[in-house]
Each structure stands twice: as structure tokens, then as C-alpha cells.
Amino acid sequence: MRFCFKSTLVFAILIGLSSAFAHRSPTRSESIVIFAPHPDDEVIGCAGIIMQALARGARVKVVDITSGDGFDAAAAGLTHKKVDEVGPDDFFALSRLRQTQSRNALEILGGKADDLIVLGYPDGDLGNLYDSTDEKVVRQQFTKKNETYALIQKDYHSSAHGEPGPYQRRSVLGDLVELLTALQPTEIYVTDETDGHVDHRAAFWFVRDAAQQVGYKGAIYTYLVHGLPAWPFPSGVTPNRPFQSRKVDGEVAPLGLPWPPPRRVPLTPEQAQRKLRSIQAHNITVAGMPDHQKEMESFVKSEEVFWTPLAASR
Asked: Are 30 and 55 in contact (CB under 8 A)?
């Protein structure tokens, strides 16, 4: 079904946003929207998709659902404090860094600053939001915030409605419904519901539900970031090798997903190197996280892999 806007003002704002989002060509028919639970997931899973789509002249939007403000070890490393000493201002500093890195990474891939949309919901609480009632307001334990924000640009809800959105289930879903209505994507990419991080699973559930509400008929592809057991394989930067599965205790890993994946998108050597640069733009070794950086760079392969979600999912 089509989403009913609450007022003609909101409708006008969204039409304006849709026009602004189509700055390259308002008549372009191919529209790709990539949903990232946190700043960096978009390039880990979809840097090649972004590059190739932009090269074809498609419109591409990256939507960071959270502000990336729930990583206590990174906040401590960034501010040179012990983990038990960090407070809200330290998490805001981390959030600003990660949002800036998302913008920089997107520009490396050929995008522009306004191709990034930040919803600004709480990192670490998307699962709680999905499982809560529509009326319950969640307060993020690290920032103490209970409403949307972004630090390098306006968060989406503030841009569209003139005020932040509360950390509520219905607010997340409403923002996603509005964006899908305005952007009219022909392809959607989002993290898989088998992902080991609850924010990534909840991102899938929210996007799936929003797509159902607007009667979306295009393609939905999922990508895996935190697979079980260790994913990806082989580890390390291997731009000349594809992703591989392996057997662990008699089961094919990554667990819960078919192998081979139903969609494998080849990357040229030059595209793989640009993907590496975009991931390195998310470098948080400044926050004392070299192992995390190495894991991110292991997604540089000769391809990107995607799955198609089952209609019978949660």
C-alpha cells in the first residue's frame, strides 16, 4: 500500500527531498538504495555495487540507520581514555568521525556528499527498537540521547519534519517508509537477517517491513558482515580471489545461508583497489582498533556476494 503523509507540509518536503536526491538526472529510472546499520557497513558490503551503479549513471543513495555511536572501545581509543571513563561527549566525537568517514568513503567511490542520508537512530539499540511497542521511547545508554541526530549534516527526520524523531519503533519505520516512497528504488541492499550483530538483523527487519508497507516490487539483496563462524574467508586483502565457504563441524559456513550465494558481482582489479581505499577511509586505528580494521579490509575480494531474503522470514 502507499504511505499516507500526515500533512501537506510533510508531503511537500518529501517531494523536495526526492528532487534534491535526483540531482544527477531527474529522469533516471535506475535508483539504488543501500541501507547500512552503521557507518562503514555500506562499503564493506556494497562498495562495488556503488561504483558500478554510478558508472552506469544510476542514482545511488546510502542510508546510515544509526549514528555509529555505540562502540565503547572505539570511543575510548579515540579519546585516549579507559573504556569505563568514556561519557556522552566521547561517543559524540566517535559519531562525528564515523559519519565524516562515510561521506569521505562515498566520495572515493564516485558519490557526492548529499548521496549520504543519516537517520541517526541509536547504535546498539535497533533490535530493542524493533521488538518494542510503537509508543516506547528508547534512551541510548552511551549518549543518553532519545531522539535522532547527526553531527555533519541534519538527520533525515529533522530535515523532513523540522524536528528530531523519537527513538521509537514507529519512528524508524515511518522514516524508512517515507524514504522508499520518495526515492522509488529499483534495487535495495541491506544486511542479512542471519548476521551476527543484532543491529544488522534489525536493519533487515525494518527495511523489509517498510518495503512491504509501500508495496515495493523491486529487488532486495542482502549482504553479510558478521557471519558465523569467522567471515569472510579467506582472510586478508585478497583482490584476486573470490569469497569462499568452508566446512565447520560438518556444516557449510557462513551458517544459515546457501552457498554458493545466488548473486556474485565481479569486481575489476581497479574496483577492488577503490573498495580498499573506501574501507581505509573508515580507518579507526586512530581509535586503537587495528584488528577491526584488518577484518574490514578482508572484504576486499574479486567480487561481492549477495543473497535474496526468503518471503517466510521473521
From this structure: no
